[in-house]
Design brief:
Elements (H helix, E strand, L loop, with lengths): L1 H9 L3 H9 L4 H17 L3 H18 L4 H13 L3 H15 L9 H13 L3 H9 L4 H17 L3 H17 L3 H17 L3 H9 L4 H17 L3 H7 L1 H9 L3 H18 L2 H10 L3 H17 L3 H8 L5 H17 L3 H9 L4 H17 L3 H8 L5 H14 L5 H10 L6 H7 L3 H10 L1
Helix pairs in contact: 1-2, 1-3, 2-3, 3-4, 5-6, 5-7, 6-7, 7-8, 7-9, 8-9, 9-10, 9-11, 10-11, 11-12, 11-13, 12-13, 13-14, 13-16, 15-16, 16-17, 16-18, 18-19, 18-20, 19-20, 20-21, 20-22, 21-22, 22-23, 22-24, 23-24, 24-25, 25-26
């Protein structure tokens, strides 16, 4: 809606732009629309009208930044990830107080994940488990503990991560509802794979009731193994998936299994079987998904011409954009930076294009190529993705840049840059808390 408002402003139809702006429910988006209207009026010399819009924008923005439980929990997690666990701990009680007054309360999935991760990173795994056990869905609690475990693994705290995964699995088993219990296990499996713990991921996947769901999870495990050059183990894990492809009478389940199998086999270089599997898939969505996985595998092997040829056969425009974003990241990960940027900038869907450019920026920043990373980041037109990309560069640099911190803070969500704000202004936390919770 903001883009539509901006378009009417651009052609000079302020009345229509104002009517559309007044229909926006989100205070954040409404404030941005009102600011755009104020800017347009000021440029046209109508200063009184401009002041009216800008005063409304300021008032709306102030309402928007009164912290929700989710935003405060996000801020606490960012502090914990930056090692400021004492400051993060001070926010936890306030988070719990705020969410107790909100619809849904602690059952908000994102709030719960942030809380569990913050507590776990702060060494309070018992308290994290208590919070996760207090929610109405065991699957959501298991998901939050698994997410916390993944963060511990990323921080190389392997013993604590293993303990957290064990607790997550135990919580998932507690739910007597089959669907919820399965959902809990799915979340745990994905977090284990992200943490590189393929042995436990496989064991957890094999414990899922329902052969089709189990096969899908094992295919995900096999994908991770194939990407780490464990092709023999991947082939062993894939056997239940192959049985689904051969014997399942339900077309949708067979197509889903064949698409997953094709993606893994493409990573192992078995092109003959991949071609055969693609020919057997009847569902267009699953076929497009399989071709996207095959294209990514080609890109990881450095065969970008083959990757783009496969993507050209994808019939759905959005799935094609998603596939191109994955290929761009894969190409960058094996050193084909210029080609990856060319692919990313050619993506039609704006969200996928921004995601691809952000991913390339992240890889370059991690490799220490800061100038090139920032150059690519500034190709992003979406403010939120641009903020995330610039923040990635900022955090990778050895020295803190106050001006860069200020720029990212203005572009993105306030809590994502909180560690950097405190790093450049140590007394800022209490002032920010006072402002947000007043």
């Amino acid at each position: 809606m903001l883009a539509v408002v901006e378009a009417f402003v651009a052609i000079g139809d302020i009345d229509q732009a104002t009517r559309l702006a007044d229909s926006i429910a989100s205070p954040v988006v409404l404030a941005a629309a009102l600011a755009k209207l104020g800017e347009a009026e000021a440029l046209s010399g109508r200063y009184e009208e401009a002041a009216g819009f800008l005063l409304r924008a300021e008032s709306t923005a102030r309402r928007a930044v009164v912290a929700t439980g989710e935003a405060l929990a996000s801020a606490a997690e960012e502090l914990a990830r930056a090692g400021a666990c004492a400051a993060a701990g001070r926010m936890i009680d306030r988070v719990l107080e705020v969410v107790s007054c909100e619809p849904g309360g602690i059952d908000n999935v994102l709030t719960l994940r942030h809380l569990a991760t913050t507590l776990a990173l702060g060494g309070e795994l018992d308290r994290a488990e208590q919070v996760c056990c207090a929610v109405s869905s065991s699957a959501s609690g298991a998901d939050a503990l698994a997410t916390a475990a993944e963060s511990l693994a990323e921080a190389s705290r392997i013993g604590e991560a293993t303990d957290a995964f064990r607790r997550a699995k135990r919580l998932a088993r507690m739910d007597r509802r089959h669907g919820e219990r399965t959902a809990g296990f799915i979340m745990v499996v994905h977090s284990l794979i992200a943490a590189g713990d393929f042995l436990n991921a496989e064991a957890t996947a094999r414990s899922v009731v329902g052969r089709e769901m189990r096969a899908g999870l094992l295919a995900t495990v096999a994908t991770g193994l194939a990407q780490t050059d464990s092709s023999e183990r991947a082939a062993e894990v894939l056997k239940p998936v192959e049985r689904i492809v051969r014997t399942c009478r339900r077309t949708s389940a067979r197509d889903e299994a064949a698409a997953a199998l094709a993606g893994v086999l493409a990573l192992t270089g078995d092109t003959e079987r991949v071609s055969h599997l693609l020919f057997t898939i009847a569902d267009d969505v699953q076929l497009n998904s399989a071709m996207a996985a095959v294209a990514r595998a080609h890109a990881l092997g450095g065969h970008l011409d083959h990757a783009e040829e496969v993507i050209g056969a994808i019939t759905d425009p959005y799935q094609q954009s998603e596939a191109l974003a994955k290929v761009a990241r894969a190409a960058a990960s094996v050193g084909h930076i210029d080609q990856s940027v060319e692919i990313a900038t050619g993506i039609v869907d704006p969200f996928c294009r921004a995601t691809a450019l952000r991913d390339v920026t992240e890889l370059l920043a991690g490799a220490g190529a800061f100038d090139r990373a920032e150059e690519i980041a500034r190709m992003i037109t979406d403010r939120e993705h641009l903020a995330e990309a610039l923040l990635t560069v900022l955090r990778a640099k050895p020295a803190m840049d106050r001006r860069a911190v200020a720029e990212v803070l203005l572009l993105g969500e306030w809590f994502k840059t909180l560690p950097e704000v405190i790093g450049t202004a140590p007394d800022a936390l209490e002032e920010i808390m006072d402002e947000l919770t007043t």
